Here is the input.
Amino acid sequence: MSNETLLSVKNLEVTFDTPKGTVNAVRGVSFDLGRERLGIVGESGSGKSQTGRAILGLTAANGRITADEMKFHDLDLATLTPKQWRKVRGARISMIMQDPKYSLNPVMTIGDQIIEAYREHHKVNAKEARHRAIDMLEAVKIREPERVFNSYPHEVSGGMGQRVMIAMMLIPDPELIIADEPTSALDVTVQLQVMAILDDLVRDRGMALIFISHDLQLVSSFCDRVLVMYQGLVVEELKASALHEAKHPYTKGLLNCLPKMDGDHSDLPILEREASWAEG
Amino acid sequence: MTTQTDISKSAKPGLKQWLVADAPQSRFQAKCGRAWLGWIKFSENKLAMIGLSVVIGLILVTIFAPLLAPYDPLAANLANRIQPPGAEHWFGTDQLGRDILSRVIYGAQYTLLIVGLVAITAAPVGLLVGTTAGFFGGWVDAVLMRITDVFLAFPKLILALAFVSALGPGIENAILAIAVTAWPPYARIARAETITVRKSDFIEAARLQGTSNFALIIGHITPMCMSSLVVRVTLDMAGMILIAAGLGFLGLGAQPPMPEWGAMVSDGRQFLLEQWWVATVPGIAILIVSLGFNLLGDGLRDVLDPRGGD
Amino acid sequence: MSAVTRKNRDGRTRTHLFSGKAGSFLRVVFSLAITFFGLLLVTFLIGRVLPIDPVLAAVGDRAPQAVYDRVREEMGLNLPLWQQFFIYISNVLQGNFGQSVLTANPVIDDIKRVFPATLELATIATIIGVLLGIPAGVFAAINKGKWPDHIVRVIGLAGHSMPIFWLGLMGLLVFYMKLDWVAGPGRLDAFYIDFIEPTTGLMLVDTLIEGDTDLFWNAVSHIILPASILAYFSLAYIARMTRSFMLEQLSQEYILTARVKGISEHRIIWRHALGNVMVPLVTVIALSYANLLEGSVLTEIIFAWPGLGLYITNSLLNADMNAVLGGTVVVGAVFISVNMLSDVLYRLLDPRARR
Here is the structure.
């Protein structure tokens, strides 16, 4: 793990205007990221996904992003033009989406979608691109890459679809991958498999990873560092190896919710919340 | 998702808080609250407000036609025929010297009569067929929907033409013919809504309390279909106006000397080149009223039926 | 009506067999047959309740009672209603709609003669409507809530609100009478009409076959105004549906995926979103095409366009019921077929429905 800072975020806020009023989804999140694997954990609505999207400048049209600083290397993400963004997205920062059933284009073949991702950032001919795409499908451990290459998304299983997604997002060789709940739409049996494939590739290629999930245990086993978010705030930052040192009652609550192999089999405790945690 | 601040500031704080309360105390309050939020959304849509004013305007003109019209719409004055628009006759006169403005004003009555009668006959028929089909399913559904499909397979104007030709020209038969062509889409909509709610727990609960099938359909299922039906009927009113005008234009709807707009356009056809206003003015009246219903329906759809719109 | 009930019962017991590819094809054919059957039933009943006595129309009101009775028998009008209906069905299936009183030709021959004119008009109109309507709808969707969206919306709504006969008259007034940019009513100038041999019945094609460019351009200048007016209605509908499908697709997750990949906004809209929009849009285009085939009734009257709509209306005004009902059946059959065709196209376009 090197100490060079890849991404630096200071006081990030994301707000949405809705007919019922303004919603502050992310309220002053700050962190620095080196070539490491960072986990962001929180329940739904905690702002973890919006943090990921804001890094790619992909907040929905009714949302606003403000930050004291948002830097990727020396690049000030806050001032990028749409054209500059396109050189960053995919090529340098990429994101793995949650559910391949919805996040792959249903009327384009898998091969076309992977090739599109590659050729957007690498000027190669169609044959070379196809070759690369097949290699990449092999790299995510798809056994019949030729067949999958010519298939449509609805013709492959969820686990396979997510491997396709990983292949597609990794093929331009970005420096930072944001994985937003990459396995929560999958069957429990293939979750770890897919996670392992992603983990291997990220390590082999020396990429940084932001792993967004509601699953504290999963995050801690794949990441070096964990941010715990609650109602748009980072309530605690921990080393993954030191979860037991958690001080914030919310994190402790999350930890207590995990069933323990050796523990007693009484009911799991209910996660308690206090209004004061949400006061930044 | 945390703090919520309200952006609408148009009502008195007390009443408004009661309306937008997160936990309404009564069914009435909840209904009022929903209506209030719907109204806010609707009134923000300028085009929909224009549509609403046109429709209200049409109703007012219909009621006050005798007060608004400067002349008798049927009084012929051959000495005064085909006068261009001027101070005397704002929209000119037609081939029999009748004041076009007065005829257009009285024509509003026929338009409102036609869409009104078609709506109150076709919508309940469609609703009944659709809810029955959706509620009972099985062969009842199959038979009713086949019949609906047959009527949908006819293009509306052609079917209306065939019916009017069978029944004879006249405004009553035109209304009947348009109603016959208008109900099938309502049956489709009502059936779709019914199928989504018929397995709901609240229907099951009412059934367990011994509610009869008939009462279930009328009391519980029909209300669930109302909002999408209202939207669709409003949007269709524009189409009904156009078909009625088309029949009038062909001489199969309202008969002379009734000041029906479609028939008036037909009258002006022969003077098109030199006396363009005779055909133009009633056409614009059709356009405005039909556009009004379309704008209103569009706005209503955004509020009442978010799935149908965007 | 025994055959009817048997048909229905067969349909029901067989429904569970209607699965798989062949099954879904059978189901389509079956529902097509039932709908067509209903179409015939309705037209038959309309013909029966008519106040016009077809015998009287044929023999004239001075014919002696004996002649009247003989003709009545020849026409099969003494038979029970259900027998008459089956005779009607078998006649229609053989393309026999009876004689037209007005033209003294078999109705089917008349329809064969006039249908190409309507087809040509509706086809040109649909092409214009698609070429303008899809970009307009896309443009409105990507500018949702801004002024281009409002303009497209108002243009579209005006299209839904305009009486077509009136718009046709206004078009004639402005572009033909005042500006003289286009030719007037009819398919060709009266002077040219005898020059052309109807090979396909489509004037634009026939003139090209004969290699006569003068005639071709004359035909173009005749068709352009009525086609544009019809196209406006098709455009209004296509643009509106394109906009709403487009908005739906643009909010889908795969669009976000494409943005993450760094794809240009242009490609996201025209390749990713529109690729998905085309699937339901095919149905819309087919529906609007079928609607134009019938919607041309009023346009044909205004432009003296010798097509099916003008034929039906003229027959109607002359109480020529065989011609009216024959025309209605044909229009209904075309309508049903186009809908079925759109269903097939849908399956071809959507990979999810393909196998």
In short: The domain at 107-353 of chain C is CATH 1.10.3720.10 (MetI-like fold). Residues 14 and 196 of chain C are 53 Å apart (CA to CA). Chain C touches chain B through 63 residues (CB under 8 Å).
